[in-house]
Amino acid sequence: MLQFIYKIVTNFKRLKYMKTLYTVFAFLFLSNIIFAQNVEFDKDNFSSDKEGFKEAYKNLKEGDKQYAYGASGTYVLALEYFLLAQKFNPNNADLNYKIGSCYLYSNMETRKCLQYFKKALELKNTVAPDIFYMLGRGYHLNYEFDEAIKYYEKHRNMLSPKDLELERKNITKKIEECNVGKQLVKEPVRVFIDNVGEEINSRYPEYSPLISADESMMIFTSRRENTTGGSRDLGDQQFYEDIYVSYQSENGKWSPAVNMGKPLNSDKNDATVGLAPDGQQLFIFMEGDIYKCELKGAEWSSPKSLPNSINTEEREGDASFSYNGKTMYIASERTDKTFGGFDIYTSTQSEKGKWQDAENMGSVINTEYDDRSVFMHPDGRTLYFSSRGHNTMGGFDIFYTTKDDDGFWTKPINLGYPINTPDDDLFFVLSASGKHGYYASAKEGGVGTYDIYMITFRGPEKPIVQNNEDNLIASIANPISEVIIEESVEIKTMRLTILKGTVKDAISLNPVEASIEIVDNEKNEIISTFMSNSATGKYLVSLPSGKNYGIAVKADGYLFHSENFDIPEATNYQEITKDILLNKMAVGSKIVLKNIFFDYAKATLRAESNAELDRLIAVLTEYPNIKIEISGHTDNLGTLQLNTKLSESRAKAVVDYLIMKGVSTSRLQYKGYAYLEPIATNETEEGRQENRRVEFKVLSN
Amino acid sequence: MKQFILFSIAMVFSLGAFSQDNPTAIQNPDTTLVVAENQEAELAYNNGIASFKNKDYKSAVDFFNQAIGFRPEFSQAYFNRGSVKMELKEFEAAILDFNMAIQYADSVPNPYFARAQANYALNKFDEAFDDYTLAIDKGFKDVKAYYYRGVINFQRNKYEEAIADFSQAISIDPTFAYAYNDRGSAKRKNNDIDGAIEDYEKAVKVDSKFALAYNNLGTAKRKKGDFDGAIIDYGMAIKHKPDYHIAYNNRGSAKYDKKDYDGALKDFSEALKLKNDYVYAINNIGTVKIKQKEYEAAKTEFSKAIDIDGNYGDAYLNRGVAKEELRDLEGACRDWKKADELGVKNASIYLQDCNEF
Questions:
Q1: pLDDT tens profile B227-277
Q2: A64 and A83 housed in the same domain
Q3: A691 and A671 in one domain?
Q4: How many CB pairs (< 8 A) connect A and B?
Q5: 0.95 exceeded by the pTM?
Q6: How far apart are the C-alpha atoms of A527 and B37, rounded to whole Å?
Q7: Any B CB within 8 A of A491 CB
Q8: What's A563's domain CATH number?
Q9: A432 and A531 both lie in a single domain
Q10: Is the confidence metric ipTM above 0.90 for this complex?
Q11: Which of residues 370-429 of A touch B (CB under 8 A)?
Q12: DSSP conformation class of A366
């Protein structure tokens, strides 16, 4: 079993072409600038610390002894001595090279090799003919694939045609592994990988975990110090393999691993290879063959070798079973019907329970390189295995293949980074839930060389959600400012007419400050009352056009003056000038009552007359002693008799109104003059209208 | 009537006082114009409009009230009073006034349009839709009846009808940028991204400073995978509207799409500066942090967003992802459960990993 793992120790270290290469190197690097000085382990170089040198030299030699043995176990031992010597003299190219090699071949912290190979080259560019190859390995293991390719190619370019022939295939494969690595690292698979912890893993190799279906138990192989017999394998100088068990508590913690003891473990190698689906049969590797142990109550039976249909002269390892236990998958190094190295074989159980001859699973799965550590998924159609061939990114990688509907296995697929690494990754098993896988890996971060890790499969990536928004509808984001309002209506307007003039004393023509009252005759309403200017007698008023107005002008000591006038409709501005002469209150003074209106050819007073009549009453009230005559006048149309009668009855109507309003009869006289006292011509309508009038005359004061 | 008299007297006095000593001083014949009789309603109405234009809405309402008092069938006065109420956001009252305006003048289109606006403001989309249609039928001249009806169609997910209305609006007024933009959005909703791009481009051609349309153009291009084009368009949106946090957020996402995470972070942060409670930007910063594998920082961002909006489902979903990365599956499952409760798509799928919790 153990040999499978440690086969990766390369043979290049002992290549015969070494010496020839040295000369080539010497020539090539002669002109190179050497940055650091190589310090040989020569006592002359350490004359100041002879004791220290002695000790260091001793360590160097002890290390060399182990190193010369060339087994993975002895590299670990050599490393311990070398590191002590290195502490004393860190600048020895050969020592740096050897330490790098120890790291690389011991499977312990392999990635550390790079720093020592770099230093070795820096100290002495002829340190080893394969230094570029070793640097390629170092970069390869450190995921620096481009650098690795560079050094692999450098190494290839240095080779003689003969050596190239020997090495070409290997170098080409390494470069291809780097290219695969670049690709896989770029697209990591979604897993968490956890070291199962120090209860299980030690500084020695642990591998080949077998898991009970419910993950409550793990049986695995370890090569720790307390293995049965406690001695080392003669081949690789590591402790013999033994089988250990650990149990997982509900909180996920594993119990400290316990050596399963006899009869499973012997003084030699005893390694786990498979567990039947029901957990009742354990298959182990002993002396190159597969043995079966059965669980009887709490005890495991003594191991029994599987029949010759399974085991051969060559080594067999690994065993996995179909869910019904009727098909077995094993790895074998048998020499017939092989594609090279370990191949995977399958055997079925006959009806009588006999295992048939194992058959090679074919070229889709098996390669010329090692293909092994097989695990059959309970679904019966997914097979996991590890291979150094196919598209590995370095060392063993884990692959899976599925059986298609026609019973053919599909091209194996690399399980991907970070499950697989440029180093060895193998012994993959899957829990029944499918959530967890367990495997052994030499990956960094372990507690020793090979450690057992648990993979948590996270399923497809869970996309994260970004949130964005847009203003899809413009008017919602930026409402259109919209004021809809009906427009103003047109207001019908009239033009104002300016009425202006002066109020003066009729005799002296001196300006009189008089009160002016404007009456809308139609509505019988006073529109405006204002005064004329005392100094100038001027007045001015604006009046809407198209109406008939009465104007009454009163001043103390004067008889009031009334006018009746129309302001015609006008679209343009107009001014009307009306100068008014006021008569003093004196016997014989008379005024025309222009705002007294009668129905046509009748003596019926119309309501529009009231304002004028009220003014008349006001005068009589103000001057209680005056007596007056109200006279009626007509135009000359019609007979004198009729006109006399009409003018008299109109005068009487006024007097009657005054009497009705409380004016004493004794103060009033009336008379009809017909057309005998015209004040204007009777030849025109305007003149005749002037003549149709009622007058007021002061008879006595 | 009294109004008229007072008004007339005021005229008379003012003129008299002005020029009594010097009657010839009257130069402006217009000052001699006076209101004819029986126009109290009209006068009040016009005063109402004047007040309205001065934004003195209270006086405007008073005047329109007077106008209606004088003339209860005064349709325009109802209409205008309704318009004042629209300005005052008293939409229900406005609708009552528009109803009256329609009652007294049912062939006039404006009140239908205005009532549509009021109904729309009250989210009464069916009524608004019918009113816009009536306004159109009654001969409403403005493109906006078509436009707004298109908007309602859009909001009702009737994109074909919306496109037809926006097209009508465009045929009436080919310079109406909003209609191009919105038609583009309707096409986008109809998965016609090319058509959308075409319309958004027309919108910005008609109005070269139309930030919103640039933003939409960017998003349409982003949907087509044209991230560089999108980034340019978002940039234009930002240029013409420097406080456009939405465009910053979107440009950030376009950069995120391009895996320019630093650039994305810058834009999201800018959006956040402009609107400090902009949870989308906070969430998106979190998504960048996830891409940069800074899961703790991502979790912090999502938590910030959740603190602002406790019902922000996507942020829960995302925080769950961050927690899962941080190996806190229990916490992740709690978040996914919450996201699922909040109706986030995919949350239930994520929860399939959560059997034990």
A1: 999 999 999 999 999 999 999 999 999 999 999 999 999 999 999 999 999
A2: yes
A3: yes
A4: 181
A5: no
A6: 14
A7: yes
A8: 2.60.40.2190
A9: no
A10: no
A11: none
A12: -
